[in-house]
């Protein structure tokens, strides 16, 4: 089959656009889709510094490549952050691939290595507490990413794709967690000194499109799964349900996300009125101490938030990998 836009062999078919596209046109299609979503949701302005969180998986590698390709025309200053969790071979491979690709793109990379910079790897931190590994991992990553972006004066870009977000929204509706629901928007505005501005440029890119993007553009990514990956529970059921719906009605996930974003303002509380400050690290907290400081106090004997902040404050903008 031929590409709908040129004479080359088609690489894939996009059902909701009814297009067969070759590798080159597919790459352009995804990049322009990201740019349109950035404009639609007002994600960035010219001159903004963007810190891209890169795990090494297909989504973050696609994001790094796309942001790097559009950074010039959009006058964005792009740099990357990788958190080395210290999870054996998985973390070793991830760091290696991220370092190699950032270098080949000419993007400054900051590596925050839990073992080196905090003293314990994620599995070692887990030994000190009863919380699940993924829940601890999420908490630590969110804290480090937010802190890095605040201290570097950057907007944080994460690689959540349309499937991830639609699943999280439905799951949170099912379990009644509206507080998490309202955070699943394409842009979370900055609250100066407390919360960094966060954007999700892949908000309208499907999971399989991110995968096809890295394959079509020959971008290496970590094809290994983290050993703690768990499939099951509500998330998996919601995923199956949404995939079935998408098969029957191509494009429904995106239209769901657009309507969600339009209507979610109704539920949004005035965040600035409710801001509390962590007595230890000074960042946002709904209690005396933020969750990161509380959990690290249990693990290390003392809260570690200030230490993470000092790491990013002391950074010269050079490659720290
Ligand atoms: Fe972290 Fe769990 Fe994801 Fe592994 S599977 S990277 S532990 S959240
Ligand atoms: Zn083509
Ligand atoms: Zn704190």
UniProtKB/TrEMBL annotation:
Residues 2-26 form the 2-thiouridine synthetase TtuA-like N-terminal LIM domain. InterPro entries: Ncs6/Tuc1/Ctu1, Rossmann-like_a/b/a_fold, TilS/TtcA_N, tRNA_thiolation_TtcA_Ctu1, TtuA-like_LIM_N. The keyword Kinase does not apply. GO terms for biological process: tRNA wobble position uridine thiolation. Residues 50-223 form the tRNA(Ile)-lysidine/2-thiocytidine synthase N-terminal domain. It comes from the Archaea. This is PP-loop domain protein.
